[in-house]
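hey so i finally got around to running the thing on that chain from the lab meeting. sorry it took forever, my laptop kept dying and i had to restart like 3 times. anyway pasting the input first so we r on the same page abt which one it is
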Amino acid sequence: MRDATGDEDHEKVVGRVERQVIKSAVKKMDALATGSKRPRASQASRTTARRRCYARAGIPLYLSIARDTAQVTLFSAPGANDYREHWTRPFGRELPLPDPFTFDLDTSDLL
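ok and heres what got predicted. didnt touch it at all, straight out
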């Protein structure tokens, strides 16, 4: 059932995306952090802070799902204060994941 904000449906879709990643790379899951952004200003600052913490910790990949902009972004090449590279795709387009995953993430379930 869907609530007024649509959170339950969104969480189910995020769960499916995470299961797709896990299924394709169970042994390498520690290399990927995932986040789901909600369309609120305070959430944006927390998401940016979280992403920068992951980069400083050396987590090689960070996958961000932004439903407010209907986009998926993969951050890579962690640096001292943030990720140095990122790729963004709109919902519905595949997002290629690099090693150790090396498959195209299907984002059509996010539409």
